[in-house]
Design a protein that fits this description.
The chain has 367 residues and is an alpha/beta fold. It is 32% helix and 11% strand. An eight-stranded parallel beta barrel has the order 1-2-3-4-5-6-7-8, surrounded by four helices.
Length: 367
């Protein structure tokens, strides 16, 4: 979710041409209408209440379903200090999600904390492992989580092998240096193969935050293609304040669909509903109109999200996920895995629920 790194070296690299292929048929609409609800268990444990657009208290999954959500996304960290977003919590939350009839996307960070374009920390238990051992770690861990979910009747419908891996994952071993995509592709294939061994029909996503930079997207996905990486769906993060115009987003989606002959999903997007701050930590987005002059109001948030969905649909994308719509400023539900109690939330003005826990009455996930 962080802004894309300045990767001058990437753009200077010789691009590897992808073979000419026919674009996959465009889906009739957005089949994956998703919400990343990874912080929700902590909020509920702390007593947070959620309300529908009429102001009636309800289960947050039901409220999101009423707004059009059909897919939930959960990140998983290997051994976070906070005790949240680990295997035990993901298994528990997956049961709640599937009980509501929602599909499930598991987002493997392969880290004990946040993995994004600026950092991909190897889990402490895997520190010092070489490529061969890390490849085995990824396979065994991915298979174990997937198989555990399957045994309890909550088989994931989709899996992300890595999170926003613009220049690789599990650094330094899986970092893409001098355009050598061999190591990261081995790691990606370990996650892919483990997922398919667990459940053949589970879709595998490879996720970058490159929706705003078509040259960098080509560099990365051409590179892993040439190195033999396997995946089913190309996933991109798109935040208009960091990744540019909707017109450019449409160009990137259309291009990568055709170039790699795979469906495309926007795995993360969000927009502020206010510029107010409701805790001690300054918000990430402060501008009253961060994109296209659309104000940071409930109507503005809904307008921008609708525009992203329509752009994605028109360009032939398979789905759009809103990132952390339920992460309101609940004391004790902070961002820092090592100090969740006191670290605060810089995202509450980007949630789709207000500070009182009521969903934005204007927002919709639509086909």
């Amino acid at each position: 979710m962080r802004s894309v790194l300045a990767i001058a070296a990437v753009l200077a690299a010789i691009l590897i041409p992808a073979p000419a292929v026919a674009s996959p048929a465009a889906p009739p609409g957005l089949a994956m209408r998703g919400a990343d609800v990874s912080t929700l268990p902590r909020a509920l444990d702390l007593g947070a209440a959620f309300y529908d657009f009429r102001g009636r208290r309800d289960n947050p999954y039901d409220i999101l379903k009423q707004a059009g959500v059909n897919y939930a996304r959960l990140r998983i960290w290997n051994d976070p200090t906070s005790g949240y977003s680990n295997k035990a919590q993901v298994l528990k939350q997956a049961r709640a999600i599937k009980a509501k009839g929602l599909k499930l996307l598991i987002d493997f960070h392969y880290s004990d904390t946040w993995a994004d374009p600026g950092k991909q920390f190897t889990p402490a238990a895997w520190e010092g492992h070489d490529l061969a051992l890390l490849t085995k770690d990824v396979y065994d861990y991915t298979y174990d989580v997937c198989a555990s979910l399957k045994r309890q009747g909550t088989t994931p419908d989709s899996v992300q092998v890595g999170n926003e891996i613009n220049v690789g994952m599990l650094w330094p071993v899986g970092y893409v240096s001098n355009s050598d995509f061999g190591p990261v592709s081995q790691l990606l294939n370990a996650g892919h193969d483990a997922t398919k061994a667990c459940n053949r029909s589970t879709k595998v996503l490879i996720h970058t935050a490159l929706a705003g930079n078509i040259d960098a997207a080509h560099w990365f996905y051409d590179g892993i293609t040439a190195a033999g990486a396997r995946w089913d769906i190309t996933a991109l993060s798109y935040y208009c304040m960091w990744h540019g115009s909707l017109a450019n987003l449409a160009t990137v989606i259309t291009d990568v669909r055709a170039r790699y002959a795979k469906p495309v999903v926007i795995a993360e997007t969000a927009y502020p509903w206010t510029t107010e701050n409701f805790d001690h930590l300054e918000n990430i987005i402060l501008s009253p109109a961060p994109c296209d002059g659309i104000p940071a109001t409930p109507r503005g948030q809904a307008q921008q999200f609708a525009a992203v969905q329509e752009t994605a649909r028109s360009a032939g994308a398979l789905g759009v996920f809103y990132w952390e719509p339920t992460w309101t400023a609940v004391d004790g539900n902070g961002w820092d895995t090592e100090d969740i109690e006191n670290s605060g939330n810089a995202w509450e003005n980007m949630a789709t629920f207000d500070d009182g826990g009521r969903i934005n009455p204007y927002i919709r996930w639509v086909k």
